[in-house]
Design brief:
heterodimer; A: 341 residues; alpha/beta; eight-stranded mixed β-sheet; 22% strand; globular; B: 340 residues; four-stranded antiparallel β-sheet; 12 helices; 23% strand; disordered C terminus; ATP hydrolysis activity (chain A)
Chain lengths: 341, 340
């Protein structure tokens, strides 16, 4: 069993307009020291997944089923108190926007100390020293002084560093970062990505990075899981997803983005249509209305949900097309276009 | 207007926002959002304006379209100085100069139908069309890839990408000459971004449009622009044609920006040697003296802290404001001077 094992996780929200299947049968695993990148567009269910693992849907209207095993403990069936004991200590989260996820009324130090003292029986002085150490560790200059600053006194990059310090305060073994650099400028983003990589190496924690940015994913991930309409549509080693992808949606993502590391193309190749709303996911393969190859499946694409099946390289793909057909398409149609880019 | 005259010419443009204190609103300083920038935009081309947050790129867009009042310098549109033109005189000009906004959620009135939104320019400018406004609006909707039958729908019935198309349709209504697009695709999903970028390019070819595209995403800017200007703390630090800027950037800041972009290629990241800038962009309230980049620059020397480098043309059409430019032609640069 892996350090983190998620099995057939489903998070559904009943609403007046119908059932929203935000996460619909997600299975993955992660070891200590490894990074999993979860990629998807808005409304693909990637953030709901992360909140689900942390148990933040508990007590809400969400209907959660499946299993989440963290280091031998099952979390879906566990009580809210039991999960609260783990949250912050064993697993922690770095949110996208540190300005709205930190309390504006308390100093940065106060918020780190609070989290630390919930899980550790230490005096305020000891906790404060720990907070100063952490702020220094994440690269905040003059940590002994900045520990008493309020979040608004920090710049965006500094705030994200403080956020990371807070998440690290109890040495969590599982760290979930939801769009950790989306709100940041590109030069600051590079600093934060480096920092996250270094800290992960130091703490040997398991890291889940959730983002829409394939560049960020490529920077950090060992494994990549691509989500679409609440389901995993492709899951495997980073190199396989980037160099041997087999799902038409992954192909579309890769070919629709302009890339600085390739020659400029005259034209971008977008995916037609727009991502589905989770309340109205198309029947069959959720991607079929946008898929250029949907006509190759004898009509099954709109009636039958394809299985998540392994390829010969061992990564998982949810597509009706046969393996050989996908390989041929990739080699003859997609890869040549991507590589001239 | 002759062929070689720029459609839009910006000269030493400045916008200082006063910072006031106390009851009497005493001025204690100024945020120098845009601090003396100059550039030309020629007919049919796309100029990209890139930089990090707070560099003044959006302010520049708003100054050019006169949504903000410049505190110094000049904006010349089609040979006419519009810097301080009154609203009455400006209105007919607004037909020729339009803006696309970043957020397709907040830039469309939720209580107006698509027909009313896209038809508003006709109404405001008092333009009569041959077959009525409705027909004209439907033609435009079709042109931007929307269903003309959706004339009576409201913005909330559309997805983000479609909303951005509505915004684009509105700017196109009166066939403008110049379009300022402020982060036109950054709020959109990856797969939708490409659709909108392609649409902007098609429209440019079809309607002979001139664009100024303001964006922070360097790969989008490279794709869409003919020339690119890089801004840092209210100044243009480098301006060149696309190819030159991306293959042989001269300003250390441009280099650092390009090198910081995460590349969607796991192998490349392992091999890549990267420039890492330390710290954040300083506050525009109190920018560093002389070269504003010297606090983060690894090449900075004494002169950078005392003398502001002018924006000089070092190669054909490639202007850069740096004492120690990289990739510079072997001419007498300051670097050679200090070595000698």
């Amino acid at each position: 069993m892996s350090f983190l094992d998620v099995k057939d996780l489903r998070i559904h929200f009943p609403t007046d307009d119908g059932l929203v299947r935000a996460v619909d049968g997600l299975t993955f695993s992660l070891e200590r020291g490894q990074t999993l990148g979860i990629v998807g567009e808005s409304g693909s269910g990637k953030s709901v997944t992360s909140l689900g693992i942390l148990g933040l849907h508990k007590g809400g209207r969400a209907k959660i089923s499946g299993e989440i095993w963290l280091d031998g403990e099952e979390l879906v069936g566990a009580s809210a108190e039991a999960v609260r004991g783990l949250r912050g200590k064993k697993m922690a989260m770095i949110f996208q926007d540190p300005l709205s996820s930190m309390h504006p009324y308390y100093t940065v130090g106060h918020q780190i100390i609070e989290a630390y003292r919930i899980h550790h029986d230490v005096s305020k002085q000891v906790a404060r020293k720990h907070a100063v150490d952490l702020l220094g560790r994440v690269g905040i200059p003059e940590p002994a002084k900045r520990v008493d600053s309020y979040p608004h006194e920090f710049s965006g990059g500094m705030r994200q560093r403080a956020m990371i310090a807070m998440a690290l305060s109890c040495d969590p073994e599982l760290l979930i970062a939801d769009e950790p650099t989306t709100a940041l400028d590109v030069t600051v983003q590079a600093q934060i990505l480096d920092l996250m990589r270094d800290l992960q190496r130091e703490f040997n924690s398991a890291l889940i990075v959730i983002t829409h940015d394939l560049g960020v994913v490529a920077e950090l991930s060992d494994d990549i899981l691509v989500m679409y309409g609440g389901k995993c549509i492709e899951y495997g080693k980073a190199d396989d997803i980037f160099y041997q992808p087999e799902h038409p949606y992954t192909w579309g993502l890769l070919s629709s983005m302009p890339r600085l590391d390739r020659e400029r193309t005259e034209r971008l190749l977008p995916i037609k249509g727009s991502p589905p709303s989770l309340i109205n996911v198309p029947p069959g393969c959720a991607f079929h209305p946008r898929c250029p190859y949907a006509d190759r499946t004898d009509g099954r694409s709109s009636t039958e949900v394809p299985d998540l099946a392994p390829t010969e390289r061992g990564h998982l793909v949810r597509c009706h097309m046969g393996r050989t057909e996908r390989r041929t398409l990739w080699e003859t149609e997609i890869k040549p276009v991507l590589e001239t880019q | 207007m002759s062929e070689n005259e720029p459609l839009l010419s910006v000269q030493n443009l400045e916008k200082h926002f006063p910072v006031t204190k106390g009851l009497l609103k005493r001025e204690v300083g100024a945020v120098k959002a845009v601090d003396g920038i100059s550039f030309d935009v020629f007919k049919g081309e796309t100029l990209g304006l890139v930089g990090e947050s707070g560099c003044g790129k959006s302010t520049t867009g708003r100054l050019v379209t006169r949504l903000l009042e410049p505190t110094g310098g000049k904006v010349v549109f089609e040979g006419r100085d519009i810097t301080h033109m009154g609203q009455g005189k400006l209105r007919p000009l607004r037909r020729d100069m339009q803006m696309i906004f970043q957020d397709p959620y907040s830039s469309l009135n939720p209580r107006h139908t698509v027909g009313a939104i896209v038809g508003a320019p006709f109404r405001i400018q008092g333009v009569k069309t041959e077959n009525g406004t409705k027909k004209a609006v439907q033609d435009i909707l079709e042109m931007v890839g929307l269903n003309p039958e959706h004339y009576n729908r409201y913005p909330h019935e559309f997805s983000g990408g479609q909303r951005q198309r509505i915004g684009i349709a509105r700017t196109l209504a009166l066939k403008p000459k110049l379009i300022i697009a402020d982060e036109p695709v950054s709020a959109l999903d990856v797969s939708i971004q490409a659709q909108v970028v392609n649409l902007l390019e098609d429209l440019q070819n079809e309607l002979d449009l001139t664009y100024v595209v303001i964006a922070h995403d360097l790969s989008v800017v490279r794709h869409i622009s003919d020339r690119v200007a890089v801004m840092y703390l209210g100044k243009i630090v480098e301006i060149a044609d696309r190819k030159r800027l991306y293959t042989a950037p001269m300003h250390p800041y441009t280099n650092a920006l390009l090198s910081a972009v995460p590349v969607p290629d796991p192998k490349a990241r392992r091999d890549r040697d990267r420039i890492r800038l330390t710290g954040d962009v300083p506050s525009p309230l109190n920018p560093p003296p002389a070269c504003r980049f010297h606090t983060r620059c690894w090449k900075a020397q004494e002169i950078c802290k005392t003398v502001e480098p002018p924006l000089e043309e070092l190669a054909g059409g490639h202007r850069v404001a740096c004492h120690f430019p990289e990739n510079a032609p072997v001419a007498a640069t300051a670097e050679d001077a200090t070595k000698a």
